Amino acid sequence: MRPVVVFDTNVLISGMIWGGVPYECIALAQHGNVEGITCEEILDEFVDKLTTKFGFSLHRASEIVTELLDFLHIVEITNQLKGITTDPDDNIVIECAVVGGATHIITGDQKHLLPLESYQGILIVKPADFLTQFQ
């Protein structure tokens, strides 16, 4: 069975802007080696950070989202999963993983997500650790 992964916003940003290990994880989904899932809320946060924090135009950010949607499947969440972390954006990532039947959440969030290690059987791992497990 192929792993089903949710990429946290920080992994999407790192991978799509700078490349490196986060991009290698994203490329696994792009090439069909893993199934990548996301939700509108993660993509909205991605666009918001690209435009406000990194100075991307809305047009360029939308182009990147379109590229991601060529290989990431969108699941609908209800935003009802609360209190797992103190960061509501991280609760969205977890809910996306639960709803989408993910096996992994790939993140660099050392404050809220990585300390959990797993949630309902979904492994929460750094990009480098995922690549090691996958290879």
In short, what is this structure?
The chain has 135 residues and is α/β, with parallel strands linked by helices.
Summarize the structure in words.
The protein is of the alpha/beta class and 135 residues long. It contains six helices and six strands; from the N terminus they run βααβααβαβββα. A hairpin with a 2-residue loop joins strand 5 and strand 6. The protein is globular. The two termini are 14 Å apart.
In terms of per-residue confidence, which ranges show pLDDT below 50 for 5 or more consecutive residues? none
Terminus-to-terminus distance: 14 Å
> Please, what is the average pLDDT?
94
Helix content: 40-55%
Individual helix count: 6
Major sheet description: 6 strands, mixed
Strand order within the widest sheet?
3-2-1-4-6-5
The shape is globular
Tally of strands: 6
What is the H/E order?
Answer: EHHEHHEHEEEH
The radius of gyration is 14 Å
Look at the helices and sheets and give the structural class.
alpha/beta
Share of residues in strands: 5-15%
